[in-house]
User: What shape does this take?
Amino acid sequence: MPDFPVIAVTSGEPAGIGPEICLRLVEFAAKSPAAHIVILADRHLIAERAQALDFPVVLRDWTLGVPSSAGLLDVLHVPLALASQAGKLDPANSPYVLQLLDRALHGCRTGEFAAMVTAPVHKGVINDAGVAFTGHTEYLAEKTGTPRVVMMLAGGGLRVALVTTHLPLKDVAAAVTAEALEQTLRILHADMGRKYGIAAPRILVAGLNPHAGEGGYLGREEIDVIAPVLESLRGEGMTLIGPLPADTMFTPPMLARGDCVLAMYHDQGLTALKYASFGHGINVTLGLPIIRTSVDHGTALELAGSGRADPGSLFVAVEQAIEMAQRARPSP
Assistant: This one.
């Protein structure tokens, strides 16, 4: 095992901002030498972006066991199908994007890498290439054979996990089942310990309906589904506060009572999170057999190649991956 954890960073959609914010990791590495960062990308793409942006960096081919060095950026070369132009999507390169994920995942599962961090991908162009793809979270769950994973975003002093993720609003109520809620809470409780070192987390749980159902007048999901699951898991020793009205759950006095929040659906939880942390928040996939963090933004095609993309979220994602990897390392 290397002296420092090796963090694999996938550069994501080649036409987006991923390659150029990955270049900026040479600045992060100079200030945070506690890990060895490896960029997974087409080496020529990274070199071309650096030249176009007049960005001073020396690229080196990744070799396991060779120590990192200030001013160098290690690149594990994965070849593009076709040359990529900043800002212009091409479905022909969608298999390349998935190859980056597969290579990073393989390295994490064999112990070559301690964690993987993902730059943004473009779901639409991957589907245009004929590959059914709903997101990193679901893809990695399928590849690892994990029956349920949990998406959690962190930033701005908040940690917000979700019971359902990328679903139309009309389908959410049917997806918030007792089984789904219980499994999500068990994963969240366990990984707050494994990944954040909080062995007995206090979890704030949102209701589904306005005012958490108003005693059944605005919906019965809180009475029939959510409250019974919370009561059962409290009997096992979990600290679960709720179901709470989502419109007041994110106020400072309420947030002070918990270590993380569980929302029932995407916009219920992530609107507040992104307001508090946009550009510096991260995505963490809980429940996987590996450590995976990600930026909380998209490919920003309109900024690609301009040099104006903010690498802040990527820096935080790498920083959090390093901390989780160090926490997971066996004691000497």
Remarks:
- The chain has 13 helices and twelve strands.
